[in-house]
Automatic annotation (TrEMBL):
Pfam families tied to this protein: DUF1697
Matching InterPro entries: DUF1697
Name listed for the protein in its UniProt record: DUF1697 domain-containing protein
UniProt superkingdom: Bacteria
Organism: Rubellimicrobium mesophilum DSM 19309
Length: 181
């Protein structure tokens, strides 16, 4: 069985994805060790299905049961371990709400990344490593010019999580994989 993390884009505010019914729907669909983390679109599950099938099945369930039609980014536990290990700003983990990992659906054009890097006001930083963009915004995500322009500027579908969430999702993936209690 493979442990997967599901990152639902755009959950919160006007778009709600109720965690209890979501867990029930995923369990009824045959997924195992289903868990959710906070009401902002994060779920963990295990399955023997390949990632493409998991992604398609979860999307179909969400549309049919909840009318949810936004992007769902699915990654394996191994992908998530790699995301944590490749963080280019390890010193930023001391203030985890200022560090974000944005999972990218594709490879951004280098010129788009360069334009985002040019927005640096002397403190914000961005680095793209594989299909993850790491944003360090020491003055806060909401106050960052880089952060406010990131979504459209990167040019590929994405969803971001702060480092507190990144770490907690790794813990839940470890539990689902049977690596911790």
């Amino acid at each position: 069985m493979t442990a997967y993390v599901l990152l639902f884009r755009g959950v919160g505010g006007a778009t709600q994805l109720p965690t209890g019914p979501l867990r029930a729907a995923l369990s009824e669909a045959g997924f195992a060790r289903v868990a959710t983390y906070i009401n902002s679109g994060n779920a963990i599950l295990t399955s023997d299905r390949p990632i493409e099938e998991v992604s398609a099945r979860v999307a179909a369930i969400c549309e049919a049961r909840f009318g949810f039609r936004k992007d769902i980014h699915v990654r394996t536990r191994e992908d998530w371990v790699d995301l944590v290990a490749r963080n280019p700003f390890p010193e930023a983990t001391a203030a985890p709400t200022t560090l974000h990992a944005a999972v990218l659906a594709g490879d951004p054009a280098p010129e788009r990344v360069a334009r985002l890097q040019a927005l640096d006001q002397g403190w914000d930083r961005i680095a793209v490593v594989g299909r993850v963009a790491y944003l360090h915004t020491p003055s806060g995500f909401g106050a960052s010019l880089l952060a406010t322009r990131f979504d459209k500027g990167i040019g590929v579908p994405n969803t971001a999580r702060n480092w507190n969430t990144v770490r907690r999702l790794l813990e839940l993936l470890d539990v689902a994989a049977g690596l911790r209690a």
